[in-house]
Design a protein that fits this description.
The protein is an alpha/beta fold. The protein has helices spanning about 45-50, 70-75, 95-100, 110-120, 125, 140-150, 170-185, 195-200, 225-235, and strands at about 5-15, 15-30, 30-35, 55-60, 65, 80-85, 155-160, 190, 205-210, 210-215. α3 packs parallel to α6 (about 140-150).
């Protein structure tokens, strides 16, 4: 087993509120891993802590490099890409300009090849190459931010709710793209509201409740009924995690 990312005793607090009391898990290289759990479980907080966007305690090691004293910019240079919830394109720039921003850490001259690879994954971006990103539909913007993350040839991609708010047709496009990336050997860590879909396409699933790991297992063997019980139990317990998912 080759480990891409190792998390050990990750603890995240917002003031006096403890979002994640101390969680540990590993992501295997070339795998798709899903974090599942109801709203407020701490899933988004975990992704943000890995990216360095929120302070956290504990050990995080990406490809042998400790991350806990590393800036978000340096983590990107090490090969960590984050596709946040809400898409966050640069609306006044074209699709092509947005894609090229994803390659800013690269020292080679591979931009054109990488753009071609992204446009092969998402042909609609090729059609919209010179269109302003702000004029794209929500689904097209989601394609764009995933494509932008791919431009740095990342060692791992964190994706937060990649299908949220999309039409059923666009959800199918995004899910298909994620499956193709997994088959191509990319390492993916995903938070997805469509938990059943996420479980079915994931190599490993970690179920989170109140910031704690309560179950895990291979996607094809994961007990969906057990997940339902985890959701219902968590929703019965009021808590405040600063709006995090």
């Amino acid at each position: 087993m080759s480990i891409s990312l190792a998390i050990e005793n990750l603890r995240i607090c917002y003031g006096a509120s403890v979002a994640v009391p101390g969680i540990s898990f590993i992501i295997e290289r070339g795998s798709m891993t899903s974090l599942v759990g109801s709203n407020g479980a701490g899933k988004t907080s975990i992704l943000r802590a890995i990216s360095g966007l929120v302070p956290a305690q504990g050990n995080m090691i990406l490809g042998g490099h400790p991350l806990h004293k590393t800036s978000p910019e340096a983590r990107a240079t090490l090969g960590l890409a984050h596709v946040p919830e809400g898409r966050h394109v640069f609306p006044g720039m074209t699709v092509l300009e947005n894609l090229k921003l994803g390659a800013y850490t690269r020292q080679d001259r591979q931009e054109a090849r990488l753009v071609d690879e992204v446009e092969t994954l998402f042909p609609r971006l090729a059609e919209r190459r010179h269109q302003l990103a702000g004029s794209l539909s929500g689904g097209e913007q989601q394609m764009l931010v995933i494509g932008r993350a791919l431009m740095c040839t990342p060692k791992i991609i964190l994706m937060d709710e990649p299908t949220m708010g999309l039409s059923p047709q666009m959800i199918e496009v995004i899910i298909d793209a994620l499956d193709r990336l997994r088959k191509q050997g990319f390492t993916l860590l995903i938070v997805e509201q469509n938990a059943v879909e996420a479980i079915q396409m994931s190599d490993m699933v970690y179920a989170i409740r109140l910031g704690a790991l309560v179950d895990h297992g291979p996607g094809l063997e994961f007990d969906v009924d057990r997940l339902t019980a985890i959701y219902l139990d968590e929703q019965a317990k009021p808590h405040d995690l600063s709006g995090e998912t």
